[in-house]
Amino acid sequence: MAQTVHLSCLLALLVAGLAEGFNGSPGGQDPGPRPLELKEVFTLFQIQYNRSYSSPAEYAHRLDIFARNLAQAQRLQEDDLGTAEFGVSPFSDLTEEEFGQLYGHRRAAAGAPHVGRKVESEKWEKTVPQTCDWQKAAGVISSVKNQPHPLTQEMCNCCWAMAAAGNIEALWAITYHQSVEVSIQQLLDCDRCGNGCKGGFVWDAFLTVLNNSGLASEKDYPFRGDAKRHRCQAKKPKVAWIQDFIRLPEDEQKIAEYLATHGPITVTINMKLLQQYQKGVIKATPTTCDPQHLDHSVLLVGFGGGKSVEGRRPGAVSSQSRPRRSSSYWILKNSWGAKWGEEGYFRLHRGSNTCGITKYALTALVDQPRKKRPVSCPP
């Protein structure tokens, strides 16, 4: 752990030096990063994220991508309206296209199936709590998952299944006071609507649970990171099930109220800005993060707000000082491991439909309608 922290600090210092090259010289010329400095940063990146390349040509190719991504992170830093910091991440040696293919799912263009917006008829309150964080409730939020195969590290585009599983686990814990960890692999193997490790949507996962009459436990049906339909073991003992799933109104106030009074929900967003993300609150414009291009599903676990400190932001690609505004935000659980972002989580601005967060807010129903009980959200 100490070595990782040391590498992160040294990497941040070298990146800050490189930012001067990206910003240009006082005379108006842009010399770019000096080759030795760039290679030093890249070497530290390889050490920190355990990267190796098959040939000198592949090394040169990834070094070029790495330099381009640092420049892109610099532009994102300048354009962001929130408190986010962009710079070196575990994905800094991937092109935008590679990143999209490996870590997202196919674009949600056709729309969700016709699911009843039953929450539309509920009486919506005018106010919601200032803060809500289901991470603070014991046993509600399971550990951060990682999409690559645990042994081979081959990618599995299963963010949709992991988000749905996290939703069911959280609601089951809230409703029945029982912590469960459900099988993501069963969602992949028994999926008849999506495409397993090649991508799917949250509603595909919910339909699979309904078709299978529940979900097995992760212990009984462990994650392999692949999907072969003939391996579907639908008769494994079940530890959780759902009665239905619903889609919430495209209204951030109503989403916040439902989140606070019922529990975590799934959302599907544009993940473009997450490739270079390090920490902080992302506040993007429709130009920098198209709210119609939705390609990644995550679990929405809370919301809050607060002021950030004005001045230099260590670790980001820019060393310039910028005034930072107070910002309301959403708290989201990702599926790229605990070493990414804010220990596996990230924050998006709340109130501007950042990256299309309101479009597909879905949640399972794990309780019978006549057995509803009030729940309270941790502040």
From TrEMBL:
SUPFAM superfamilies xref list: Cysteine proteinases
Keyword Transmembrane helix: no
Signal peptide: 1-21
InterPro entries assigned: Papain-like_cys_pep_sf (IPR038765), Pept_asp_AS (IPR025661), Pept_his_AS (IPR025660), Peptidase_C1A (IPR013128), Peptidase_C1A_C (IPR000668), Peptidase_C1A_papain-like (IPR039417), Prot_inhib_I29 (IPR013201)
Superkingdom of the organism of origin: Eukaryota
Every Cathepsin propeptide inhibitor domain range: 42-99
Residue ranges that the Swiss-Prot or TrEMBL entry lists as coiled coil: none
Keywords: Disulfide bond, Signal
Annotated ranges, domain Peptidase C1A papain C-terminal: 128-365
Family: Belongs to the peptidase C1 family.
Protein name: Cathepsin W isoform X1
